[in-house]
Design goal:
This protein has eight helices and 13 strands. Helix content is about 35%, strand content about 25%. Helix 5 runs antiparallel to helix 6 and helix 6 packs across helix 8. The N and C termini lie far apart (about 45 Å). By secondary structure, the chain is an alpha/beta fold.
């Protein structure tokens, strides 16, 4: 089921799609990011807020095509394309891992300046966005009640970042995985913990009984996660073996299950972990 906006709305941002009863996803051209929306009888939970205050305001208007319920927000992690739209949703409660809030407070301004330098035509959009960390933080797990629909927020461990939050809608077996899963390209490793990622994904598999929505790309099923888990496990094992044999991450590159660009970053991070630097 697809839901489109009012007359004159373009399809540059792809339509909301209902993937289970009153559970929606929407993909955006900007950074190929995917957001989610879970609607209960009196409240709704938005999963991620896009990359700037303007993008957040646009998203808020599009949420209101679906529901006028009281709105809650969850950030799957601190990266700008998932959390820098937070300010547009105040005074709503914004949920995130405690380290997500810390990273936004400490690192987000540097990220804004880097975005402005990389995209000078949009510099003001990023530099003028108020930085808004989650106001409700968790360490391990929490449940939010939307009215006849509890939704579970869980940190299964480090992986894509140190603050990945997974949103589980138990009554319809839908999981919003953030960037622990990426469809359409290799995982992103810049802030990753490659040695921890397989265990985190393995724990997430325990709740992956239906559609899984990645932070980027299309909905996947359990078999896709199992394939990505196998690749991440192979990379972690490769890093351990090569380092034990006295080699460097460059020695491991030709044997990586991921393309060279992603593998280089992943193996650098893995070797840093093995060396106690992360």
């Amino acid at each position: 089921m697809s839901l489109y906006g009012p007359p004159g709305t373009t399809r540059a941002s792809r339509a909301w799609r209902e993937i289970a009863d009153k559970v929606y996803m929407r993909r955006y051209v900007d950074f190929n990011v995917t957001v989610g929306l879970v609607v209960g009888s009196h409240s709704a939970l938005l999963v991620d807020t896009r990359g700037s205050a303007r993008q957040g305001r646009e998203l808020l208007g599009e949420v209101r095509w679906i529901t006028n319920n009281n709105l809650l927000v969850a950030n799957t992690h601190h990266h700008y394309d998932h959390s820098f739209g937070n300010h547009a949703f105040l005074p709503s409660e914004i949920w995130g891992h405690e380290q997500c809030a810390e990273r936004i407070r400490n690192d987000a301004r540097t990220t804004q300046l880097a975005l402005a330098a990389a995209m000078p035509e949009l510099a003001y959009e990023y530099t003028d966005t108020p930085l808004t960390p989650p106001s409700k933080t968790i360490r391990d797990t929490a449940t939010v009640e939307l009215g006849g629909r509890p939704v579970e927020l869980t940190h299964f461990g480090r992986g894509h970042t140190d603050n990945d939050l997974v949103v589980v809608v138990p009554d319809v077996h839908v999981v919003f995985a953030g960037d622990l899963i990426e469809q359409g390209g290799p995982p992103s490793f810049e802030d990753s913990y490659p040695l921890d990622w397989p265990g985190t994904l393995g724990r997430m598999l325990d709740v992956a009984d239906g559609p899984v929505v990645p932070g980027h790309g299309e909905v996947v099923l359990r078999s896709f996660i199992e394939g990505q888990l196998a690749d991440l496990s192979a990379l972690a094992q490769l890093a351990r073996r090569v380092r034990f044999d006295g080699g460097s991450f460059t020695d491991a590159l030709p044997l990586s299950p991921f393309p060279a660009t992603a593998a280089r970053v992943a193996l650098q991070r893995a070797f840093m972990q093995l060396g106690g630097e992360l």
